[in-house]
Design a protein that fits this description.
Elements lengths: L3 H10 L7 E4 L6 H8 L4 E6 L2 H10 L5 E5 L5 H4 L4 E7 L14 H14 E11 L6 H11 L7 E6 L9 E7 L2
Parallel strand pairs: 1-2, 1-4, 2-3, 4-5
Antiparallel strand pairs: 5-7, 6-7
The chain binds S-adenosylmethionine.
């Protein structure tokens, strides 16, 4: 069985092409950014708030199509002025770095709202969510918001392991109109 991160990549892969504009909203070690770059897309914006993580990761990615941003994803509209094909969020903290620096419910929700506005029609967004004790409030806020969105405007699915309550899960979003 594929990991939830691999499943999130599979979900996004359909909308990647050589002109695709992508956002990695939580850069971390850069695995999602590298996934986009390996698919030979046109541009990848990568957002990260933690300077140590940011510097380590950008030093390991030598690619002219990568645009790293040392700022919170809640400000993505300041940096991204074009429609976007694919967006990924992988919430929580960066393993190996300061676990107290993690995504937070309010800024995550702000960022998701901005991401939905930036997506082009048929564009997709993947959210990898951790509903354990520290992530539960974030998970609830995100789901409560998404479940009220007009189903004619966005298709939104949740893929979760039914027999393992607190395991990470995937929400996939596609903009319909
Ligand atoms: C689970 S990790 C991301 C994993 C990453 N995608 C990878 O492939 O390694 C979450 C990252 O989000 C960062 N982060 C926390 N708050 C953020 C925010 N408001 N904007 C952007 N990044 C944030 C954390 O510092 C951490 O590096």
């Amino acid at each position: 069985m594929k990991s939830i991160v691999d499943q999130s990549h599979d979900f996004l892969k359909n909308v990647l092409h050589k002109g695709a504009i992508c956002i990695d909203a939580t850069l971390g070690w850069g695995k999602d950014t590298n996934f986009f770059l390996e698919n030979k897309v046109r541009k990848v914006y990568g957002f990260e708030v933690q300077r140590a993580v940011y510097e380590k990761t950008i030093s390991s990615i030598q690619d002219e199509n990568f645009i790293p941003v040392l700022d919170g994803h809640q400000n993505m509209d300041v940096y991204v002025k074009e429609e976007v094909d694919a967006i990924i969020f992988n919430f929580g903290y960066c393993p190996g770095f300061d676990s107290k620096i993690k995504t937070e419910p309010k800024t995550s929700l702000d960022a998701i709202q901005k991401a939905l506005a930036l997506l082009k029609i048929k564009g997709r967004m993947a959210l990898v969510i951790y509903p354990h004790k520290e992530g539960r409030e974030e998970s609830n806020i995100i789901e409560n918001y998404l479940m009220k969105i007009d189903p004619h405007s966005f298709y939104i699915e949740k893929r979760v392991q039914l027999n393992q309550g607190r395991s990470p899960y995937l929400i996939g979003v596609e903009k319909l109109k």
